[in-house]
Specification:
The protein folds into 3 domains: 5-220; 246-356, Helix Hairpins, CATH 1.10.287; 358-505, Heat Shock Protein 90. It is built from 12 helices and 7 strands. By secondary structure, it is an alpha+beta fold. The protein is rod-shaped. Strand 6 and strand 7 (497-505) form a beta hairpin. The longest helix has 82 residues, at 158-239. It has helices at 5-69, 75-87, 89-110, 116-150, 158-239, 254-323, 328-355, 367-377, 379-384, 404-421, 452-455, 473-483; strands at residues 363-365, 387-392, 400-402, 426-434, 438-445, 487-493, 497-505.
């Protein structure tokens, strides 16, 4: 499952938030537990220990009063102590025992489940202590009655021994109860301190873990958003006109999709820029060709008539020299002048063709038939030059839309260029291949090839790699193909030959006639 960029960032920060929330909840729970421990000690055990201490102090005073009560030499003191013991001490002891019992019951109700057994034991001991005091009061009342009836001489009697035994037992119970409370308070305080230390370390560890998660989430968010800076830089370059800018991203999230769309946009802009440059180059080329054509037509017109006159006079001079039996050397010079005049006339004809190039008459034609016709017509010429012609024409080649005469001229120009490049003979191979919307014609030779610096200007007017070439043949060829809405390009490698590729539009219908 591919998560979106926003979802991944949200999940990262949600995990961090939940972690911090868990740390906070754990801290609150631990503080609450420590608080309950402290409240149990402060509101339960410490007040109960204080109450037991008061009971112990009160019981000590009662024991001292019992010793004074047994002194037979002070009957007045005995009567005062008996009266005090009957009226004041019992009520005060019951109040202190009731207060301690109430504190124990309250602590038991508020305590945790683990602490209740101990508090129940304390409540039971308080009840037992209360019962002992009830027995103690009864024993004291018997002792008081004996003292009052006997006149104070009771030392060593059974009531005295009973009272003393109960006092010792009560004193022992109070001390045990106090010792239990002191020990429990120390245990609870120690447990609270230990829990506090554990909680502090746990909170510190969880906080560090949450901080680490936050840093990881921040780093992850930075890593996820880092490509945006790359994309922004690429957009800036596009804005400055650098259409070669691309974003090297292969992610599958939104930024990856955006990067791919951006690269597609940059590619489309580059293609549009290339097309604009090609159109501008074509426009400049057309304007230049038009200007060259006008100049060529004017110059050709100016020199054509003088050349015709020179050629006619040269013929007359040749006839006159023959009639006058002049030397062979003179006649040879005149013939050389005539050949040069003919060559100049041929060049002017080429300039006129270039300057007054007619619009093509487009109609469906079979490219195989056109190629075969041109090759058959010039086969003997190529054979004498030591050039072998090879054909690899597609059997199911569809017709093309063309001006048959102009396409034959294109083929003838390319064949003658190849023948002139094969000074010592060689092979010329002609092929046809159907494409989706076009038909490709290929003409290749195994000659010396064209240097790279020559390929760049191969179709420029007046550029030629031959010593006596006009540089108009390939320019005219390109002009014809352009007028047909086709394409022509040249591939060449030094020492391995040259290959011309022509692409013409396929015709919608078959040709009406197959022209030879």
């Amino acid at each position: 499952m591919n998560l979106t960029l926003a979802t991944r960032i949200f999940l990262g920060y949600a995990i961090v938030t939940l972690t911090f929330g868990a740390v906070s909840i754990y801290s609150v729970v631990q503080l609450h537990a420590i608080g309950r421990e402290i409240r149990l000690v402060s509101d339960g055990y410490l007040p109960l220990a204080k109450a037991v201490a008061q009971i112990e102090s009160f019981h000590k005073n009662r024991q001292r009063d019992t010793e004074r009560l047994l002194d037979e030499r002070e009957p007045e003191t005995q009567r005062a102590l008996i009266k005090l013991a009957r009226v004041y001490f019992p009520q005060l002891m019951r109040e202190k025992l009731a207060a301690a019992s109430g504190i124990a019951h309250g602590a038991r109700e508020r305590a945790l489940a683990a602490e209740r057994p101990f508090l129940e034991g304390l409540v039971a001991r308080h009840e037992e202590l209360s019962n002992l005091y009830e027995d103690y009061e009864q024993a004291c009342n018997k002792l008081f009655s004996v003292i009052e009836t006997s006149g104070g001489a009771v030392r060593g009697s059974e009531p005295v021994r009973a009272v003393v035994a109960l006092e010792k037992r009560i004193d022992r119970e109070i001390k045990v109860l106090g010792l239990m409370l002191d020990q429990r308070v120390a245990e609870r305080v120690g447990a609270a301190e230990q829990r506090e230390r554990r909680s502090a370390w746990a909170i510190i560890a969880l906080s560090l873990f949450a901080i680490a998660l936050a840093l990881i989430a921040t780093a992850m968010a930075g890593r996820l958003l880092a490509p945006i800076r790359t994309l922004t830089g690429a957009v800036t370059r596009i804005g400055l006109g650098d259409y070669s800018a691309e974003v090297p991203l292969s992610a599958k999230d939104e930024i990856g999709v955006l990067a791919r769309e951006f690269n597609a946009m940059a590619k489309a802009l580059r293609e549009r820029e290339r097309q604009l440059e090609e159109k501008q180059e074509a426009l400049v080329r057309a304007e230049r060709l038009a200007a060259i054509g006008r100049i060529s037509a004017q110059i050709t017109h100016e020199i054509r008539n003088p050349l015709t006159s020179i050629g006619l006079n040269t013929e007359l001079l040749d006839e006159a020299l023959e009639e006058s039996s002049s030397s062979a050397e003179s006649r040879q010079l005149v013939k050389a002048i005539g050949h040069e005049v003919d060559r100049l006339v041929e060049i002017t004809e080429q300039y006129l063709k270039f300057a007054r190039f007619p619009k093509p008459v487009l109609e469906p034609a079979d490219p195989n038939v056109l190629i075969e016709a041109v090759l058959d017509f010039h086969e003997e010429e190529f054979t004498r030059a030591g050039v072998r012609l090879e054909c690899a024409l597609a059997q199911d080649c569809p017709p093309v839309v063309c001006d048959q005469g102009q396409i034959r001229q294109v083929l003838l120009n390319l064949l003658r260029n190849s023948r002139e490049a094969l000074v010592h003979g060689g092979t010329i191979r002609v092929e046809t291949r159907p494409l989706v919307t076009q038909v490709e014609l290929a003409l290749a030779d195994d000659g010396p090839g064209i240097p790279p610096e020559g390929l760049a200007h191969l179709f420029d007017p007046f550029f030629s790699t031959k010593d006596r070439g006009t540089g108009l043949g390939l320019a005219l060829t390109q002009q014809i193909i352009a007028e047909h809405g086709g394409e022509i390009r040249c591939e060449s490698e030094l020492g391995r030959g040259t290959r011309f590729l022509i692409r013409l539009r396929r015709a919608a219908t078959a040709p009406a006639t197959r022209t030879a």
